[in-house]
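Wed. Picked up where I left off yesterday with DUF2232 domain-containing protein. The coffee machine is broken again, so keeping this brief.
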Amino acid sequence: MNQKNREAVKYLLIAVGVSFVLSRLMVGNFLFTIPLMVLAPKFSDRKGELLPVILVGALILLTELIRSRNALSSEEGRILLVIGLFIPSVLLVASAVWIASVNQRTVYRYLASCLFGVVASFAVVIWFSKPTEPLMRVNSVMYETFRLILGQASGTTDSVLPMAEDAIKGVYHMSVLMIGAVLAPLCMALVGFASFLAMSYQARFDGGFSVRVSKWKVPDHLIWIFLGSWTVVLLLILAKAGYLARALSLQVALGSAVLYAVQGMAIVTHFMLRKGIAVNTGRLVTTTFLLAFLIPGVNLLVVFVLPLLGVTETWIVYRRNE
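Structure written out below (tokens, as returned):
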């Protein structure tokens, strides 16, 4: 084995090992594809770049099959397996597309990486909107898990929680409906966050990276998707349409909002650079991402202001010096 092959094997083991370990952690489960994208340029050909992705996917699948082996004989057990593999599958496919489209513009790489997650999200929502007996049993299992989590959060291990049973069911039902309405944009946000962190790490010694980020812009014609999808959402709400139609239209609308949030972040970066503020875009995006997901109140500011900033640039020129 020559030096080049030894280097390839070393990077393969590092990428697969670190990625798989991260996938077993609760927080790392959303970040485990970053090492795969960071180390992809270390390989000399496309097969070498994608091999770690395939190996990590196989390891995750094998691990989940072993862990769920006693439940796979029932249909609800298989459904729970699919649910557990949904986010890892979306992120793995997205990382493979991101790696394979290295020569494309960043915006098109991102859109292509999100495609599988968006389509899969639509399919899952449609599937779960048609309740069958196995799905109802899965729903019961997930509800009991939800009750257990509430019990632990309230500091009691009793089967009877301080909240009324009807109130608990109402909160659970509302949570499920919300997840169905935000699944596609959630996948887009997770894919974008992982891809950006990988890209920013690769460009950590590149002084022009922040400048390039400040120039990101959504294609102009996507404004019609944004305006049209939100118009459809409003009309469906006024018409009191069924949940499935409203959930699918809201996924499209929120998905377009995610794209304009990226443009909004680019505008913020541009303003900071114009003011002479040293910008670490990796930290800026990480902080914004955490604010959007973790801090009530502040997250509403992030979720609404950034997309609004991006959308209004269709009519207001914010970046005049480019």
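Quick read: The chain has a mean pLDDT of 88.
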